[in-house]
Amino acid sequence: MPTPPTSPPPAAPSPLASPVPAPTGTLAEDVPLPPGVVAGLVLAGGEGRRMGGLDKGLLLHHGIPLALHAARRLEEQVGRVVISANRHLEDYRRFGYPVVQDAQPGFNGPLAGILAALDTLATSDAPPQFLVVVPCDTPNFPADLAVCLHRALTGSGAALALAEAGGRQHYACALLRTNLAADLAAYLAGGGRSIRGWHERFATAVVPFPDPDAFANLNTAEALERVAEATKAQETRATGE
Q: Which portions of the sequence form the region Disordered (predicted)?
């Protein structure tokens, strides 16, 4: 009696996938991240076109440079932070954090800064498993951003996790597995520059946050001025003057 044909094994799932929902209850409880597992990156290596070419990370927000404000806020969440910058490197180093520069000259977008951070962290004494990324011009991101993204990513098995608020997804406020460095390098080498386009190559956990204002971009001089005026008005009301 002939042996019946054997069915081929099921195909492995493709890494290209639509966003996967985050686990129920995305707001973090008082559960800290495991030490050393997640590192943080502040993106401050852009051209600053909306700021007339000014180096955004060095502009003041509440009297503190934007990049330093974001780095301190992120340090409270992950403990280990690096800054991506492509000019005024000594000014950034004075903030007290490691500074990474894009491998290629020019301004090649946030993905180049992410890759520079991944390459640097990979050669450290204790390479992290995950990297949480924030842009310097979003200095008021949620205080539980990292832990919420980490919980969603590990709970869903996704490759990346990104923040969503007010119906808008924030691709530069994200957590990624550091073992994606090789894919990112290939994407950039092939001419890819879109951070959204790279995200969409992988299954991504989308994590909702309740306050859209936490992700407000202070990426123009007018936006910074509005924040300064609002702060001054609040201080005036508080003092009754």
A: 1-31
